[in-house]
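Reopening this ticket.

The earlier resolution said the output was attached, but the attachment link was broken on my side. Pasting everything inline this time so it's all in one place.
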Amino acid sequence: MGAVLVSGNVRMKTMDQQKLDRAIGRRLKTLRTQAGMTLNELAARSGVSRAMIGRVERAQSSATASLLGKLCAALDVSLSDVVALAEKPPERLVRLADQPHWRDPESGYRRRHASPTDAASGIEIIVVDLPAGARVPYSPWGRNAFTQQLLMLEGTIAVHIDAKTVRLREGDCLDFDVMRAVTFENEARQDARYVIITRRGTSYGKM
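Inline output:
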């Protein structure tokens, strides 16, 4: 079987930033409403101010990866539930040009939701480009636990899980859960690319 190549030079289709901010804001408000939470309740649970949540929901402010991570953890949803805007019907095939693409305005971190939305398998595949020097922290997730695997494609990164640090280089694969604080950091001078594979399930203990 031939090798599958992922090119770093592929031009990815991006949405207009304002349009994307509006879509993310609507999605967050929908998820908050479905969870039966007020702005005050979500603020208390996430540690994000009520005013900031309101600005993000109204698309008056672009959410960072760290902020979205806190809100998603409080809502017990994955980041992809917000960024990939999974209101679409389930699909079995999604072309490269149609894969949702999002850039963190703070760190320059870029993520592409490569897998079909709401796939029956429950598996999500995310392609991430982490710029040199970038650091993206995520808070521990809530009750809706899920596990992840990270496969390094290009470059090197450090993954900080609580007090433990694991450094990964091309070809390495790390299995971990999201019940603890996780930070992805590119300590090198070159950009890094990796794949995150997520499977919803139960946390299985310490690494």
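Reporter confirms the inline version is readable. The first helix runs from residue 17 to 34. The mean pLDDT is 83.
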